[in-house]
Design a protein that fits this description.
The protein is of the alpha+beta class and 283 residues long. Helix 8 crosses helix 9 and helix 8 crosses helix 11. The longest helix is centred in the middle third of the chain and has 51 residues. Strand 1 and strand 2 form a beta hairpin. 59% of the residues lie in helices and 8% in strands. 26% of the residues are buried. Strands 1-2-4-3 form a 4-stranded antiparallel sheet. The chain has 2 domains: 153 residues, Homing endonucleases (Endonuclease I-creI), CATH 3.10.28; 83 residues, no CATH class. The protein is rod-shaped and about 105 Å long.
Length: 283
């Protein structure tokens, strides 16, 4: 990730760690989620551990500080306790990557707990994939919508807005680049076609065949020579005819130049070279 992306993730974790639950049960649920972890991974988590020190001591006294997910009674807990627990679990065992425009959130838990966590997330309307990687359980979201919904529900509203704003900005830049590339390709094709048409018109003019063409073809050819940069629509407006008529006329010019590039004009007479016949009166 870039430094900006790392700063965004750190800001998100800081926002979550700064949440002060109003309910005692929510504080306990969050403290249980922090059970069994080692030292803090970053400053936001360190501050949260310090703030919930009393609740963590209570969890230890009650034997609910184990690293396993079973220490939290998900089945009977109300939704607000579940969200507090999930918030603590994300801060303790979750990671978020927003590199390259892709959003990826995962939890790393003991291998036996991966399926249980995936089941709980599905129960909360947030289905996730899970697997065992190098002996650890990994529960993953790769959907930006699911990640955004989860983060909003656990309290990271401001950071999610910033994340979504960056994603929209990135998408707009991508769309703009695609439009510019398409316009550039169209312009190159138009320039190439105009160049071929001008060359064909000049070739037919040299052989005299252009003069034999219908009036519309000659008018279109003249307009193309005068304004090689004009589009078919602009030529049609200038000549007060349909765009399709302009296109057919130019296609005819190119076809004639390709099929019979050296054909002499029908009105031009070929002259025979003088003979050296002694009987000729000019000899």
């Amino acid at each position: 990730m870039t430094s900006l992306e790392r700063d965004l993730v750190l800001a998100l974790r800081s926002e979550l760690a700064a949440i002060e639950p109003s309910r005692t049960c929510d504080r306990r649920a969050e403290a249980i989620a922090l059970g069994g972890i080692g030292g803090p991974r970053d400053a936001p988590l360190a501050r949260l551990l310090l703030r919930l020190a009393n609740e963590r001591r209570e969890a230890v006294a009650a034997g609910r500080d184990a690293s396993g997910l079973a220490a939290f009674d998900w089945a009977t807990a109300p939704d607000h306790c579940r969200l507090a627990w999930l918030r603590g679990l994300f801060l303790a065992r979750g990671s978020l990557s927003v590199a390259g425009g892709r959003t990826h959130l995962e939890f790393v838990v003991p291998a036996p707990d991966a399926a249980l966590l995936a089941t709980r997330l599905a129960d909360a309307g947030l289905p996730a994939a899970w697997r065992v990687r190098r002996g650890r359980g990994v529960v993953t979201w790769k959907s930006a919508d699911l990640v955004g919904t989860f983060l909003r529900r656990i309290g990271a509203a401001a950071a999610v807005l910033e994340l979504e704003a960056r994603q929209v900005s990135r998408a707009l830049r991508g769309d703009l680049n695609r439009v510019l590339n398409a316009e550039s390709a169209n312009l190159q094709r138009a320039v190439g076609a105009a160049g071929r048409q001008v060359a064909a018109i000049e070739q037919l003019a040299l052989t005299g065949e252009l003069a034999e063409q219908p009036f519309v073809v000659r008018a279109v050819a003249e307009a193309r020579l005068e304004t090689p940069e004009a589009t078919l629509g602009e030529l049609a407006d200038r000549l007060a005819i349909h765009r399709s008529a302009v296109q057919r006329a130019l296609e005819r010019v190119e076809r004639l130049a390709l099929v019979a590039p050296d054909r002499p004009s029908a009105g031009r007479r070929r002259t025979s070279p003088p003979t050296s016949d002694p009987a000729s009166p000019l000899a």
